[in-house]
Amino acid sequence: MTKSDGTPGNRAPDCLKCVYFRVSWDPAFPRLCTVFGIKTKHLPSIEVFQATGHHCPSFMLKKGLT
User: Which domain of life is it from (predicted)?
Assistant: First the structure.
């Protein structure tokens, strides 16, 4: 089931579709989240879930994506 903002109800959101997702210049940590200020090897949503036990509360779908 998908919520009205485009995020899946019971899964981590797809960071690649988020306005806050960026690609880092650092090959050891190529993915980053501008909201949480984290660089990681994995998708930031995975790191957020591991740290908090909750799916990312800041996910915002990029314009033009459904």
Answer: Bacteria
Report the alpha-carbon distance of residue 30 to residue 16 in Å, rounded: 12
SS (H, E, C) 4-34: CCCCECCCCCCHHHECCEEECCCCCCCEEEC
How many Cβ atoms from other residues are within 10 Å of residue 65's Cβ? 11
Residue-wise pLDDT for 18-51, tens only, equals 999 999 999 999 999 999 999 999 999 999 999 9
Write down the pTM of the prediction: 0.78
Q: Domain tally for the chain?
A: 1
Domain ranges, residue 54: 1-66
Q: Are 56 and 13 in contact (CB under 8 A)?
A: yes
Tally of CB atoms within 10 A around 6: 16
